[in-house]
Structure formats: C-alpha cells, structure tokens
Amino acid sequence: MKPINVGLLGIGTVGGGTWTVLARNAEEITRRAGRPIRITAVAERNVELAQAVTAGAARITTDAFELVKDPEIDIVVELIGGYTIAKELVLSAIENGKHVVTANKALLAVHGTEIFAAAQKKGVMVAFEAAVAGGIPIIKALREGLSANRIEWIAGIINGTTNFILSEMRDKGLSFAEVLKEAQRLGYAETDPTFDIEGIDAAHKATIMSAIAFGIPMQFEKAYVEGITRLEATDITYAEQLGYRIKLLGIARRRPQGIELRVHPTLIPAKRLIANVEGAMNAVLVQGDAVGATLYYGKGAGAEPTASAVIADLIDVTRLHTADPGNRVPHLAFQADQLADLPILPIEQVETAYYLRMRVEDKPGVLADITRILADNAISIDAMLQKEPAEGEAQTDLIVLTHRTVEGQANLAIAAIEALSTVVDSVKRIRLEELN
Questions:
Q1: Residues ≥6 apart with Cβ < 8 Å to 29
Q2: Which residue from 78, 203, 369, 400 has the least number of CB within 10 angstroms?
C-alpha cells in the first residue's frame, strides 16, 4: 500500500515528539492505519535543529508555503502556533487539496469557522485532537464517543500551568507571585505567561469544546475570561476549610436562553474527582443526558503526550483519505448545515453559586446587614464562616457561600454590601460549581 506522505510545519517540542513517536511506533501505526505514514518534508527556520531531529530522513526547507503546495504531500501537520502565518499556511494547504492536522487551539478558536468552511468546500479534513488537553482524547469523545447524547455541560481543567500554580499555592501556602516564579524556573510557565495565567489559553480550548458539544460556530470573542492573577492564598485556605478546592475551570453549559461559555477560578467540592487533579495534569468532566458524567484525565501538554494526539489524527485522516467527504465525521460533530445559532450568554446572565469574602468591622449588626442585602436580592446563604479577630484588631474576615443565583443579582448585592460603612474593603468574589 502506498505510504501517506506528511509535511510537518515546525519541528520544535511537539514536532520533535511527533517525529520520535511516529518512528518508534511505526509498525503499530501502520497496522492501525492500513498503510505507512511517513514525514517526508519538514519546514523549519532552524535548519540545524530539523537536521538533528530527522537525521537526514526528510527533506528540510525554510519555505513553509513551498511545502504546503508540494503535490507529493497528502497531509500537512501545522505545529507553528499563533493566529497569523499559521492561518495563511492552513488555508493555503486546504486550497491545495491537503488534509490538515493542527494543535493550534488559538487559530481554531478565533478562525475555525472560516477554516472548516474552506475545508468542506475543498472536500478535505481538518483534524485537531491535539488542540485541547494534550494527549487526552476529549475531541474524539465529544465528536464520536458521546454522539448519542445531548451534552448538558462541560467543565475542564485545561491549562496545566495554572493548575500547577494553584496546587502549589494550596500545598505550600505561598503567594501567586512566588509560585509563578517557581513555575517559570521549572519550565511549566513561559517567560511571558499571560495566555496561561489570564485564562486565554483555557478559553481557546473551552471555545472549541463548546462548539463540538452544542453544534455551534466558534465564538471565542464572546467567552467570559478571568485568570488567576488576583487569587490570594487566603482564599485557597478558606476554601479548604469549607470543603472546597479552587481550580481554573473552562465551563460550557447549555441553558434555555443560550450557552454559557466562561473561564474563571472556581470553587469545587473537594470530594469531586476533578477537584483532586493536581500539578500540571488536565481533566475534563462532561455531563450527557444518557451517559451521565464522564471524566477524562491525563497529561495536557508535553512533547509525546501531544504527539500522541497528533498521530491519532494522522491515523484517522489516513483511514478516511479516500472516503466520500459526506461520510466523514463532521469537523464540529454536527453536519455543517445543522449548526445552531444559539447565543453565548453575557456573564451577567450566567447562573452559579458564589464564595464571598468580606473584611468587616467586628461590630454588632454587621452580619444582619449583609444577610438582609442578600435576601433583598433573592440570594440564599448555603454556608458561612466568621473568623475571630486577631488580638488587638477591630476587623475580621466573613466568608459567605451562596446558593445558585444569576450573576446580575450577585453584582447588585455585592455593590450594596461594599457600600456599607462596616465593610472596609472590596468584596472578594469567586464563583462556585457543585458539578453534580
């Protein structure tokens, strides 16, 4: 059987891992795919690196556009990243009749609708398992394994850097700034960690999962995104005392009015399996109407875990290479003409519970004022924790856990609480999800 020829764009960490795993497991991969899969050309600016990895077994070029137009290439693997040049290369590959495998979550979250439309027009496939949660096959699960289900919601720890930081803050009682420096030293965080710590990376991935789960176009620009930079070790400690862990979650939830799409720090009951995912690991919890809750756990990054997903896509594309395009699994699980025009709800319409921490004066009547404000805004209290003031201090922390309410109501209540003369600082608000 004629081999499938692959052109690789970028042979850095993931590209190198892809080359290594593809070579190491060549026999197994051929048995699964039905024909050999070989990387015959690599586009890489660092020619010495490419030559060192491939040991002369592939053609090396610095012209990525020449590679995507090469008539000998069947599948283009895009591992460059970013929004700009990667988009041009992917669209050029599609225009030239190439199937595409990509790990580029940013590209798909922002330009996926355009890319999938171009691919459908040309009758080629765009596969992207590696774009979400590294080696965890969550895209495959959502697109195929759970296709009998009406997906109700997804909640995922989908950024290893932030999960490592939160785990270290909880275990060692250190500040965010201290743990970030350690994460950078260990290589878990980039020199510029903005995409990770501000929640942007997780929002890219949540956007992709929401599109597949609910059959809607990619709508990253409408996601609510909040990172972990304002989290304090104090809140992690209080959450623990109340039986919760704080994780940065990507959440997509179906509601009668539309779809919630949000990323933010979230309290989760410590007894939930997902709350015990530590370090740089990822996990995604999916609630389907027929199957109930399913949990997917594993390494969300790294050379070989991500390469595992890239090569799984290569095998899928190879199997379907000659299939009628109408009989392939749709890019977003639903047939392209059946995508729903459901609105993404603004954060003010999201419904969740809350952890509220207030610094208050230690005076009679303070608690009564706060509970009255919450009641006036139809917010009921689930639990409360009041710390004894330190010796010689006239202020203390008051922590309130609420039942579920609409964010707009919570905003009104928080503004009224902050206006009280006995509340001496802004209210610290963290959303809470029971995930049951």
A1: 22, 37, 311, 314, 315
A2: 369
Q: Is 205 annotated in the active site?
A: yes
Confirm whether 343 is domain-assigned.
Answer: no
The number of distinct structural domains making up the chain is 3
- Other CB atoms within 10 A of residue 44 CB: 24
**In the predicted model, what is the mean pLDDT of residues 182-203?**
93
Provide the CATH number for the domain around residue 203. Answer: 3.30.360.10
Count of CB atoms situated within 10 Å of the CB of 327: 7
Residue type, 400: V
Between the CA atoms of 394, 400, 406 and 408, what dihedral angle is there, to the nearest 10 degrees? 10
The pTM of the full predicted model, rounded to 2 decimals, is: 0.95
Do 108 and 208 contact (CB within 8 A), yes or no?
yes
Cβ neighbours for 217, distance < 8 A, ≥ 6 positions apart: 112, 113, 211, 332, 339
pLDDT digits (tens, 9 = 90+) for 9-40: 999 999 999 999 999 999 999 999 999 999 99
- Residue 272: name the closest of 61, 103, 53, 432 by CA: 432
Pair (260, 290) in one structural domain: yes
CATH number assigned to the domain comprising residue 409? 3.30.70.260
Give the domain extent around 323.
4-137+303-338
Single out the catalytic residue among 87, 105, 140, 205: 205
User: What single-letter DSSP state applies at residue 144?
Assistant: I
